[in-house]
Design brief:
With 405 residues, this protein is of the alpha/beta class. The protein contains 13 helices and 18 strands. It has a seven-stranded mixed sheet with strand order 7-6-5-8-9-12-11. Strands 15-14-13-16-17-18 form a six-stranded mixed sheet. It has a five-stranded antiparallel sheet with strand order 1-2-3-4-10. Strand 11 and strand 12 form a beta hairpin. The mean pLDDT is 96. The chain binds ligand DWN, S-adenosyl-L-homocysteine (SAH) and zinc ion.
Length: 405
């Protein structure tokens, strides 16, 4: 552990204590044309904890325009489980909301349901093609980053919001104070800010270090969300566990004193105390586990190669960039990765340049082993690919440790 002098906590200005270095990494979703020889952007993926507000965050931030742009490839609607989830979220908001704002609405998986119900809404989505997909689904979209400036402009034009929602987006925005000032400007007196994101407690419990990448700037806990909210007049009033992406947390915040916090908040804070999640020791243990997983995974893949067995990756996830670049795994160990996303197909992964093929390539013929990068969709994928196992194939996972299914 080293105290980083260059960077201060982006939330409160406190000192950062670095506990994990995942090496030099590319932009995780900058899938490239094969043979493209132009230099790739790189940054040091290192993670630190603030000694004042406890927020866990990256030490270096990648400029937002390098990550979220016209061709940002991720689509929420690409998974049936996510479509169902966002449908449920929308129906819940429709019970009370008359003006619903979403930060990072992507292709409109949630807001299209709100739009079909005829309820007033606005989605912020800086990634051009994703924003157009949402617009085609009937969503009112601003192709823009949400920040204090954009929020003030919206509040002036449309008045206060009942709900501000951000799924898998709040943790993507290094300038969290600007977002929270914007929420303060936009939210009605009894409005709620609903944040769904992956949870540091789960990352530590599963050693899912691949959830750390350029996009995932913050790893939240109830402690750190509470501290960040309080700096901007917001109270944490509820926490709920979610099943999506293999387990996430929903944090609900509201203006201080307007809602009685649910007992679940105190319960989660107590659980975090007990697990030492707000301290540094658990984070240092995590860093040790990550190094062990890297060594195990590289040893396993090298052994399979030496025995002449073929390994293919499944899911060209953002998460896979962290694994491949940290473990220095290239096409010699994983011959290609199959993925259903057209914008990723026939490109190569950032950094290690592993080819990406359509999902149909998986069975042509089946490999001996499939390395499951999209482990957060395991249920759906294993159900669809039952034939692979019948043909003698084996799934290889690295979360929570390197193992075969
Ligand atoms: O927070 C984020 C989450 C929501 O999505 C973003 N920062 C970026 C992105 O992370 P990811 O790329 O790690 O997400 P997923 O959802 O694990 O990506 C799954 C990938 O696997 C997609 O490219 C689609 C693909 N896939 C597939 O090929 N066959 C997915 C399923 C379910 C399938 O059956
Ligand atoms: N909410 C969707 C998409 C998550 S991916 C879901 O949960 O599936 C993150 C999304 O946030 C991307 O579509 C990205 O373009 C968008 N985004 C990133 N920074 C943003 C910002 N400052 N304001 C609004 N959207 C942002
Ligand atoms: Zn801090």
């Amino acid at each position: 552990m080293t105290v980083t002098e260059r960077a201060a906590c982006r939330v409160c200005g406190g000192d950062l204590e670095e506990f994990l270095d995942l090496g030099r990494q590319p932009v995780s979703q900058s899938f490239r044309e094969p043979g493209d020889a132009t230099p790739e952007f790189g940054f040091r993926l290192a993670v630190a904890r603030c000694s004042s507000c406890t927020m866990v965050q990256l030490v270096e931030a990648v400029p937002r325009e390098l990550m979220f742009h016209e061709h940002y490839p991720f689509r929420s609607s690409g998974s049936a489980a996510l479509r169902d989830h966002f449908g449920r979220v929308a129906r819940r908001f429709l019970e009370t909301g008359t003006f619903i704002v979403e930060i990072g609405c992507n292709d409109g998986a949630m807001l299209a349901v709100v739009a079909r119900a005829g309820v007033r809404h606005v989605g912020f989505e800086p990634s051009g093609q994703a924003a157009r997909a949402a617009r085609d689904a009937g969503v009112r979209v601003r192709t823009d980053f949400f920040d204090e400036h954009a929020a003030r402009a919206l509040a002036a034009e449309e008045g206060p919001a009942d709900v501000v929602y951000a799924a898998n987006t709040m943790g993507h925005i290094p300038d969290l104070p600007s977002v929270l000032r914007g929420v303060d400007a936009l939210l009605g007196p009894d409005g709620v800010l609903v944040v769904e994101d992956f949870y540091l407690g789960d990352v530590l419990a599963r050693t899912s270090f691949d959830q750390i990448n350029d996009e995932h700037f913050y790893l939240f806990t109830a402690h750190s969300v509470l501290a960040a909210g309080r700096l901007h007049g917001l109270d944490l009033i509820d926490v709920e566990r979610l099943a999506v992406h293999g387990g996430e947390m929903r944090f609900t915040l509201a203006r201080a004193g307007r809602h009685t916090p649910s007992p679940a908040v105190a319960a989660l804070l107590a659980e975090e105390e007990e697990r030492g999640l707000a301290g540094l020791a658990a984070l240092c243990r995590f860093a040790t586990d990550v190094a062990r997983i890297r060594d195990d995974l590289v040893a396993t893949l090298s052994d399979l190669r030496s025995r002449g067995l073929r390994v293919v990756g499944y899911g060209a996830t953002a998460k896979s960039a962290t694994v491949l670049n940290f473990c220095e795994i290239g096409p010699d160990l994983v011959s290609f990765i199959c993925d259903t996303t057209p914008a990723k197909q026939n490109r190569v992964t950032p950094g290690r340049h592993i080819p990406i093929r359509p999902a149909t390539a998986f069975a042509e013929p089946y490999p001996d082993y499939a390395l499951l990068f999209a482990w957060d969709h395991a249920e759906q994928i294993l159900a669809r690919e039952q034939e692979f196992r019948r043909a003698g194939g084996r799934w290889l996972l690295y979360v929570p440790d390197v193992h075969l299914l």
